[in-house]
Write a structure and sequence with these properties.
Blueprint lengths: L4 H14 L4 E9 L4 E8 L6 H6 L15 H13 L2 E7 L3 E9 L11 H11 L4 E8 L2 E6 L11 H18 L5
Parallel strand pairs: 1-5
Antiparallel strand pairs: 1-2, 2-4, 3-4, 5-6
């Protein structure tokens, strides 16, 4: 199992992109007072039919032809079960998919969010054509990144380091350096 939620987010978004998504919204809501972390990823990909949606949590089910297992969603399901959280998946053919993971903030088995900026930079570098919106709310305060703001720079890899530095600084200011 991956040790950071940011790596699970990377996996989900890569699945969205493989499903022909051109736009992916990533929302993180951390509310310590409510003891809750919510991760929601919504895409405009091709969506899943009922059979796929029914089997998507099974680690031995995959629609990929390059491997025989699909562990991403089953790992999320395991994290939800382990922590007393929940994993909801909604999908409509031709419209897209939404995956929402709810976890108790203070549960000892909840993985940390991890390095979300590196996840965003990886997505930007490998999929510059995909519109990615990332929004994180912590106790009512919001930090947002919209890839449209830097899309003209993404083809030039010399800019990725500068974008990463700006995002790290902005995010660190938002979080106050607090890891969750």
């Amino acid at each position: 199992m991956m040790e950071e939620l940011s790596l699970h987010i990377l996996d989900i978004v890569e699945n969205s992109i493989n499903a022909k998504a051109t736009k992916v919204d990533i929302e993180i809501d951390v509310d310590k007072r409510e003891n809750l972390v919510i991760i929601k990823v919504t895409d405009n990909g091709k969506g899943m039919d009922d059979k796929t949606l029914e089997n998507v949590r099974d680690p031995f089910f995959t629609t990929k032809t390059t491997r025989k297992v699909g562990l991403g969603v089953s790992f999320l399901d395991e994290i939800a079960e382990l922590t007393g959280g929940s994993l909801d998946i909604e999908s409509n053919l031709g419209i897209g998919t939404t995956i929402q993971l709810k976890l108790p903030f203070d549960h000892p088995d909840r993985p940390p969010l991890g390095d979300i900026i590196s996840t965003l930079i990886t997505l930007l570098a490998t999929n510059p054509q995909v519109w990615i919106i990332y929004r994180e709310t912590r106790n009512g305060k919001t930090w947002e990144f919209d890839s449209k703001e830097v899309e003209g720079l993404l083809g030039d890899y010399t800019w990725l380091g500068k974008i990463k530095e700006v995002l790290y600084n902005s995010y660190k200011e938002f979080t106050g350096g607090e890891l969750i």
